Amino acid sequence: MWNYERRLEYPVNITTPNAKLAQAIISQYGGPDGEMGASMRYLSQRYACPYREVAAVLTDIGTEELAHLEMVATIVHQLTKNLSMEEIEESGFANYYVDHTIGIWPQAAGGVPFNACEFQSKGDIITDLCEDMAADGAILQKQQKI
Amino acid sequence: MNMHFANEQEKLLHDIGVMDFVAIEMSLYLDTHPTDRNAMEYFNHYNRMTNQAKKEYSEKFGPLTIALADTSNCSDWTWATLPMPWEGGCA
Amino acid sequence: MKDYMYKENCDKFPLAMAYVPWQRFNGIYDNLEEAFDAGTVFPELDKPFTGRRCCKK
């Protein structure tokens, strides 16, 4: 089961709102290479795992990805909480804003809602670990781009 | 890097962040290397330090976890009333 | 950087499988603040962000 610790894994203190950046970063929350996908992937794959050590890695990494999820949400929250309407309209953030305002809702930058198609859990540990390597490679590439 | 902290709370929270991070990293390594005694020593050291620091922080500034909440010395259930991490200034 | 490429016995490895080198513990960063900022305590896992593919050309 999970416990919660009332702190971020790494500090986030943003003082200048930026809707355009928020639009890109929301993808790290609920997008195809985002932390929600990462945590759900590992936490889902661990049940079918025949080796305890690997199940332990999947559990612990999945848990840490939840902490990353929290940091990304915090970034988006701090980037958007004091936005003006002009900023919202000019940045391309209006589409998200009209449905969610400053709420955090998991979607990709292009608007695709988070869904289980963002990850795979095949019940075969070799397949699942290959999926994990591919996914983390994609995550790293996306993070470099942002 | 020169770190500057506004107060003891910020400094302690930062130290907890660093030490806990080391413990987590070592735990991930140990998951796949469960017999590595050298790595276990590192884990034990940082895990002890971070537990001690979390206990100290919670006594002074409010609980970091529900398990560390102690209502015998305060009037309110501060777990529900203290700032949330996403508000900024909470590491 | 230490070479973890196993060039020996490659012909004994089954085909059409992905392999990952095994991490060995060689100590952690002395400067933990630096490790915290880098996102890893293991120097061998601290890979630079170049923002582009691995090839230089």
Overview of the structural elements:
The complex is a heterotrimer of chains A (146), B (91) and C (57). With 146 residues, chain A is an all-alpha fold. Chain A has one domain: Up-down Bundle (Ferritin). Chain A contains six helices and no strands. In chain A, helix 1 runs antiparallel to helix 3, helix 2 runs antiparallel to helix 3 and helix 2 runs antiparallel to helix 6. The longest helix of chain A is centred in the middle third of the chain and has 29 residues. Chain A starts with 18 loop residues before the first helix and ends with a helix. The model of chain A has no long low-confidence stretch (mean pLDDT 89). Chain B is mostly helical and 91 residues long. Chain B has one domain. Chain B is built from three helices and no strands. Chain B is elongated and about 45 Å long. The mean pLDDT of chain B is 91. With 57 residues, chain C is mostly loops. Chain C has a domain of 36 residues. In chain C, 12% of the residues lie in helices and 0% in strands. Chains A and B meet through helix 3 of A and helix 1 of B.
Short structural description:
Chain B is mainly α and 91 residues long. Chain B is 59% helix and 0% strand. Chain B is elongated and about 45 Å long.
